[in-house]
Each structure stands twice: as structure tokens, then as C-alpha cells.
Amino acid sequence: xxxxxxxxxxxxxxxxxxxxxxxxxxxxxxxxxxxxxxxxxxxxxxxxxxxxxxxxxxxxxxxxxxxxxxxxxxxxxxxxxxxxxxxxxxxxxxxxxxxxxxxxxxxxxxxxxxxxxxxxxxxxxxxxxxxxxxxxxxxxxxxxxxxxxxxxxxxxxxxxxxxxxxxxxxxxxxxxxxxxxx
Length: 182
What we know:
Layout: H1 5-22, E1 33-41, H2 50-63, E2 68-71, E3 86-93, H3 95-109, E4 129-133, E5 153-159, H4 164-174
Antiparallel strand pairs: 1-3, 1-5, 2-3, 4-5
Helix pairs in contact: 1-4
């Protein structure tokens, strides 16, 4: 499998820029994107089993990697939930698939959001960033006619950065369209 343009861009442009910006002495200090985790919580799946199948198929189509169901950890009678019941779907992307997904997200999916003005610039305190998406139909792999229900998803970018400032700089250089702080 060939390396994507974003992984080449990271090695040739982003690493030297970050090294200069943060005065790193070793290439191993430069933060890198370790993985992207796409997660879909499907509470309504307790009533309808087809929701899980649909979500797994959609996430597999979007990412190009097989999605796995997430299971409940305990019984909650108020939600009609039993232990080990499927209540979500997730995919963890690494290496080439991760870069391919990031490129499609930045160049194709995010610009398809209505009234898009950028994404929030709030990281988690350890250099990681989670992006919430309201509709799965922003991805071109999803056929709108076959979507029974609009589902949201969380996309978490896990970096090796030690601080939010380093993680933000890394993601900004990859091209994530953060909102401008005024």
C-alpha cells in the first residue's frame, strides 16, 4: 500500500516546522498522530437490533476498515439495558488508513457540513482532540437514500503530544479547519 500525501507531508514539512517551532533536539520528541478512533453511541439499539448492523456497515464504508460493536458493561433496568448488549460501534485507524481517512475528512467531508465555520479548538489537556459530527451523511461513501436515521459520531485524534499547544500545532499543520479565536 502506498503512503498517502499527508504522511509524506508530515515527514517532509510538518516535522521540521514543529522541530523549529518548539526547539526539539530529537526527531522522537516531535508529536505525531498515533491513531484516530471513530465512535458511534447508539442508545436506540436496545430496542432495534438493525440499528447496530446499519451503523457497523456505515462505519466500515466510511473508514475502509471493519467496525466492531461496543458492548454495555452493566445492567441498567431504566434503559432496558443488559450487560454485554451492543450499544455502539467503533473503529480504530492507524498508519496509512488513518492518514487516508484524515485526508478525506479534511478535504471532502468537513466542507460538506451546512454553514461550516470551522471546528472548536478545545483539546483535552493531553494533546488529544475529539470532534463531534452530527450527521454521518457528510461522508460521500454514505448514500442518503439508504440512511434510515441520522446518527452522530465522535472522531478522536490521539497524538503523542505532551501539551495541548503541541497537539493543536500538529493538527493545525495537518489542515484541520479550526475556528479563528477573536
